[in-house]
Amino acid sequence: MAPLKFRKIAVLGYRSVGKSSLTIQFVEGQFIDCYDPTIENTFNKAVNFGGQDFHLQLVDTAGQDEYSMFSRSHTMDVHGYVLVYSVTSMKSFEVIKAIRGKLLDMVGKVQIPTVLVANKRDLTTERVVKTEEGKKLADSWGAAFLESSAKQNDTAVEIFKMIIQEIEKADGYTQDKKCHMM
Question: What domains lie within the chain, and their CATH numbers?
Answer without folding.
Answer: 5-171 (3.40.50.300)
